[in-house]
């Protein structure tokens, strides 16, 4: 689903660039305004998603794996085609510093509560220098088509 959103939003950005190129040749201010709006809508929505995926890919390859305790499945703040997104939350206690960290998964487009009811620990890959950069490994969950 995230790939679809990136592709869809990037399409707006590409169209915006085309309109801005048209503005370069015609010097119509309306073309500049419309092109700028398309670029902002397209690239403004897709660049954060692309950056997040890039960080998570790097963390999966180079990060440190920690075992976190499953806490809950909550309703995410995203919905698409009348389908709600769900987020898995876990916690981990940093014993050295006595700090409790909570981690959230990427959005899942189905409720995984049934599959997680017997799971106690979930692996999370983290950047040891910045625990806000993390990736929750939920590859063991069955793949579902939206």
Mean pLDDT: 86
The proportion of residues forming helix, as a percent range, comes to 40-55%
CATH topology of the largest domain: OB fold (Dihydrolipoamide Acetyltransferase, E2P)
Strand content: 25-35%
Number of helices: 3
* Level-1 CATH class name of the largest domain: Mainly Beta
- Secondary-structure element sequence? HHEEEHEE
DSSP summary, beta strand count? 5
Kindly name the structural category. alpha+beta
The coarse overall form would be: elongated
Reading side by side through the largest sheet, how are the strands ordered? 3-2-1-4-5
What is the CA-CA span between the terminal residues?
8 Å
Keywords: Membrane, Transmembrane, Transmembrane helix
Protein name: DUF3592 domain-containing protein
Transmembrane segments: 7-25, 31-50
How would you characterize the overall build of this protein?
The longest helix is centred in the first third of the chain and has 34 residues, at 29-62. The mean pLDDT is 86. Helix content is 43%, strand content 34%. The protein has 146 residues and is α+β, with helices and mostly antiparallel strands. The radius of gyration is 20 Å and the shape is elongated. The protein is built from three helices and five strands. Strand 4 (121-127) and strand 5 (130-136) form a beta hairpin. Strands 3-2-1-4-5 form a five-stranded antiparallel beta sheet, covered by helices on one side. It folds into two domains: 2-59; 64-136, OB fold (Dihydrolipoamide Acetyltransferase, E2P), CATH 2.40.50.
